[in-house]
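Q: Structure tokens for this one, please.
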Amino acid sequence: MSATLAIGGLGADSHSVGLFVLKRALVARGFEILDLGIQNDFERFAAVANDCDAVLVSNMDGHAEHYLHEVPALPGNCVWYLGGHPTLTGDTEKLLALGFTRVYSTFVEVDEVVAALREDLASRTPRRAGNVAPPSRRSEPIVEGRDAVLAQWPTGEAARDIEDNACVLAGRPSLAELHESSPRVLLHPRSGVRGRGDQQRLFAHLHAAGADVLSFQVDSLTRDGRYTEAEHVLSNQGQLNGFPVVNHGVEILRQISAECPVPLQTRHSARDPRLLAELSYAGGVTAFEGGAICYNIPYYAELPLAVSIDRWRYVDRLTGRYAELGVILDREFFGTLTATLVPPCVAITTNLLEGLLAVESGVRSVSLAYAEQGCRAQDVAAVRVMGSLGRELLGAGGDVRVATVFHQYMGAFPTHPDDAEALIQASAHTAALAGADRVVVKTPCEATRIPDVSDNARGLALAGQGLAQADSSSYLWDEAEAQRIEASVRSLLQTVLSLRPGDVGACVEQAFARGYLDVPFSPSKFNAGRVITARDLTGAVRILDSGALRLPPEVIAFEADRMKERLAVAGVPRAEAWRLVAEDVLRTTRERTTWPLDLVTRQREAG
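A: Here is the predicted structure, written as tokens:
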């Protein structure tokens, strides 16, 4: 009998791709898996501990100690592992003291985990989990109407006066206007700290280092609506992995925004964005990120699309109300989705659907975002197609401003400093060639630690160099790739929008229910999860299994041919194609990597 392992993510953390790879690797090694999914309270792990040989807990937001602070000791006669990025400080002593057999505080290879399990379980008699099931998850709170939204936390009341808020916003730098007026790609670093003073100092340093746009990076407790827990951490002088906008409130936001000479945006992935949007706008923030698809399907296991769409319509109507008062606020959609091996056609289609939902509610400035996948030819084609279709479908008539955003690579970052710096510089070069309006910049220490001010400054400098080196006029872009992407997007859109004509929200719900929209590696039970992707020999993302996606036959044939080549070269049978996924996800952590991934191929073809 094989050993039974429970595996899942702890707390508000929403990372799921690593769990996808680990689960399939463990199944291939003969283990039986009880998959708990992501965003589990500890009680769900404890409930299955007596029925499993080992419990593998993943936490990537650095707050494992907080989620376990009321646990005196780990229950059950089983082996407990903790991995991911469970601590912001790197100190694992308190976690080990709880009874974890092993705590991995940085990236670890699957083979190392398997070897450790074999060793730790060697003297045990395996048991079978059978039909054991963890307790139900907490239900979604019912919050309807503006009064109820503002009442979710005491700071909400200060956002009530929309006309007063509009006067404040009118005096703040506008991202929508900057997109229109800037002659070059805007530099936008990631940034987030817990304290007001720390945030003000960080913004000042980043602006001095060349940042054109800055953002509040919201902590994961706030994203999951755990305002009481965030307050607990703050009152105990603990560390959060971002800025708790809701807990700090309007007055502090206005003080910070008044001192910031560039546009501010709120970035989050909140389960319920309504109070966060109210407070952000009231505090002088002129751009708000997220959407019903992009901040649900990649981040939450059991959040119904109907609930998510309703919540985001509230945000978009609020944004539209400010537009009626003469303040144009920007709404960016996180088209990066799971940020790992996402086919461009899926990323672009979800962006455009989010845009349609926003515009019908009165939004007048949208930013369509795309995450770099690593093949420059494909990335350039994708961003250009996204911008063109966005202007055609959303910006016709000139009433809606449409911008494109390029996120530097969001997968596992290179661990070698030289490779990380080369990636940031080359990535900015790609953004410029793609004609992006804004690039969200990474730091060279992405794979090793939380960046400080100097790390962010270095990232901005490298990105600036990459932008300066780009000459889009002489770049021979891949028009055939662009044509395939555009044909695929148009086919997906036509399929989705024909499901319930005139009701975009209902179309989106139906599309996910039928698998006509399907995001790879999503943790959501409302996502079909049939689409599997990997890289071809040039590094471009291709579709191994298209599931129920309605793509043009010629595109499906092309993708199949490219993947057949990759499988043959790798010597991997199609039945074990998940091995390609694991290799692609972990590639930059395992070996020195040239960036972009197709650079060597292009050099070889040119030479």
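A few notes: Confidence is low (pLDDT under 50) at residues 603-607. The chain is about 45% helix and 15% strand.
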